[in-house]
Write a structure and sequence with these properties.
- The structure holds two protein chains of two kinds.
- By secondary structure, chain A is α+β, with helices and mostly antiparallel strands.
- In chain A, about 40% of the residues lie in helices and about 25% in strands.
- Chain A has two domains: about 5-70; about 125-360, Thrombin, subunit H (Beta Barrel).
- In chain A, a hairpin with a 4-residue loop joins strand 6 and strand 7 (about 205-210).
- Chain A starts with a helix and ends with a strand.
- Chain B folds into two domains: about 10-110, Rna Polymerase Sigma Factor, Chain: A (Orthogonal Bundle); about 110-190, Arc Repressor Mutant, subunit A.
- Chain B is elongated.
- The chains are: A alpha+beta, B mainly alpha.
- The interface of A and B includes residues 56, 57 and 71 of A.
Chain lengths: ~350, ~190
């Protein structure tokens, strides 16, 4: 390391403060002392950098001051700002305006399209059964399908599943099952058919409540099951009973997600193989609680079906009790199915699950 | 100096004579056209201010260099430098540079000059960063001595050192640290 004296001498040399003879001596020293030379060069560079930095800072300060004085505050300049904005942005604004117009129009079109299509879209398939189609496809499998049933009742145009909401003739099903109905009948396990009317429909949750109006309908004693107001857990075993065909069909799987089709929070996703006709059936957990109502499935994804959550159903019914139905519903709170084996649960359940038959003039 | 007749020669002579009052003359004469250029080419007035001031600084530094020869009008030179800098800036911000709309003739700033301009900017950035890292009171001490060119006596008074020698020792220590930081910046840039 160089001493303070060397350092001072170097500074004076660089500042040109040394006398000619002293400078000469210093330069001779530089030629022999590599370390001093290095130090001097570095110092020179530093000094220049500091000087350039300082000059620039001062110059910049002066220019800022000039800018304030000459440009920033003149009134004419303020007027110009609007003009300037246009000069600069008119192209962008034109593009932005047309883009937003386009977006608005296409959004409107999309929303409209969705409204019409959402339940019947390619992705989401409501599981009501088109009887004509099923009939054709099953002709080969079920002999005498037409002839054996014909004498009893004309085949319905559509069918789905429903189950008892109360013991006195109220049934719940999916709205899309009965949507276009001219008339609705429910058919129980013993092939007894009763006429029903729709007393309530909710588009959002896709549920409908039917009331049996046939006088020959006998009220149930009491329902063995209840709707749970708790959220189902992902991974829980669940099952359903429904009528994708004339006979009741059991299907089981698991609750696979806490939200439904495209993030729909009123529904669960479930992994139960479902077919047209299953819509409106109950979704039941291991303990026999009703945790949902089967609503549809996603056609392009294997094993993704959906059910409206029991909580949504409960809240809708509670709202309903408040404002429309005179008598109101008393939902059963008691669940007699807990602890039973699956087979026994089904034995107790099956009487309360019905086929919903829909007729319309097509 | 005559306010009405601001010929290029007079402006240059004044600058070389350390008469900085002509800076405001330059500003009044040429800011408008640069402002118009920048704003038309998707900049803001603030951008225009920064670019124009950079151009003036480049011009100023060149003029101070006795070897520099201006071979076009000041107006054209400022426009050309501003144009070059603005292009560089928008290229940095986005890969796609649209068509540049010009309002005036411009000269090509040759590569060696562009490199010199850039080198000055880099050196400035390094020194600013080094001084920033240096912290107080060293930063002010260095600035007072090297930029404001206060004497050691004035500095020791300002900083409350007992005598000029003490101030000198402080300055020496600060300078040593600054040097380290400055050359560290250099290494960083080379990475």
């Amino acid at each position: 390391m160089k001493t303070g004296k060397d350092w001072e001498e170097m500074e004076q040399y660089l500042d040109g403060k040394l006398s000619a003879s002293e400078a000469n001596l210093f330069e001779i020293k530089l030629q022999t002392d590599q370390q001093l030379l290095q130090l001097t060069l570095e110092h020179k560079k530093m000094k220049e950098a500091i000087a350039a930095y300082g000059e620039r800072v001062i110059l910049k300060q002066k220019l800022e001051k000039i800018h304030l004085e000459t440009v920033a505050q003149t009134p004419q300049n303020k007027q110009n700002k609007v003009k300037v904005f246009w000069i600069q942005h008119y192209k962008t604004m034109a593009v932005a305006a047309s883009v937003s117009l386009l977006v608005a129009i296409s959004t409107l079109m999309y929303i409209n399209y969705q409204k019409v299509q959402i339940r019947q879209s390619a992705n989401f398939k409501a599981l009501r059964k088109d009887m004509d189609r099923i009939k054709r496809s099953q002709k080969a499998l079920i002999n005498n399908f037409n002839t054996s049933k014909k004498e009893e009742i004309a085949p319905a145009n559509y069918s789905g599943t429903g189950f008892a909401l109360t013991n006195d003739g109220y049934f719940i099903t999916s709205l899309h099952v009965i949507k276009d109905a001219d008339s609705v009948f429910i058919q129980n396990q013993f092939a007894q058919t009763f006429k029903a009317i729709t007393v309530f429909r909710n588009e959002e949750s896709d549920i409908a409540i039917l009331k049996v109006v046939s006088p020959n309908f006998e009220a149930y004693k009491a329902l063995p099951y209840s709707f749970t107001d708790k959220s189902g857990n992902i991974g829980e075993h669940v099952f359903t009973l429904g009528f994708p065909r004339e006979d009741m069909v059991y299907g089981e799987g698991a609750l696979s997600a806490a939200s439904g089709f495209e993030g729909d929070t009123v529904s669960y996703q479930i992994s139960i193989p479902l077919n047209p006709g299953n819509s409106g059936g109950p979704l039941v957990d291991d303990k026999g609680n009703i945790i949902g109502l089967i609503s549809g499935k996603q056609t392009e994804t294997e094993g993704a079906a959906f059910a409206v959550k029991s909580q949504s159903i409960i809240s809708i019914i509670q709202e309903l009790a408040k404002d429309s139905l005179d008598e109101g519903f008393k939902l059963n709170k008691k669940n007699n199915l807990a602890g039973l084996s699956r087979v026994n649960q089904i034995k107790m359940l099956k009487d309360y699950i019905v086929t919903i038959k829909v007729y319309n003039q097509e | 100096m005559n306010e009405i007749d601001n010929s290029d020669e007079q402006i240059i002579a004044a600058l070389r004579n350390n008469d900085d009052s002509v800076l405001s003359v330059l500003y009044k004469l040429y800011f408008g056209s640069i402002n118009h250029f920048i704003i038309t080419n998707s900049g803001s007035e603030d951008d225009a201010k920064d670019i124009f001031q950079e151009a003036i600084i480049v011009f100023y530094q060149n003029i101070k260099d006795q070897n520099f020869e201006l071979n076009c009008k000041i107006k054209t030179y400022l426009y050309s430098v501003s144009r070059l800098m603005w292009l560089k800036k928008i290229k940095k911000a986005s890969a796609i540079v649209g068509k540049i709309t010009d309002f005036e003739g411009f000269i090509a700033i040759d590569d060696s000059e562009a490199a010199l301009i850039e080198e000055r900017e880099i050196q400035f950035g390094k020194m600013a960063a080094a001084l920033g890292e240096l912290g107080e009171p060293c930063k002010t001490l260095i600035e007072d001595f090297y930029i404001k060119q206060l004497s050691m006596g004035q500095i020791s008074e300002k900083f409350g050192y007992t005598n000029a020698d003490n101030a000198k020792t402080q300055k020496y220590k600060c300078l040593m640290r600054l040097k380290k930081l400055f050359f560290k910046q250099e290494e960083r840039l080379q990475l």
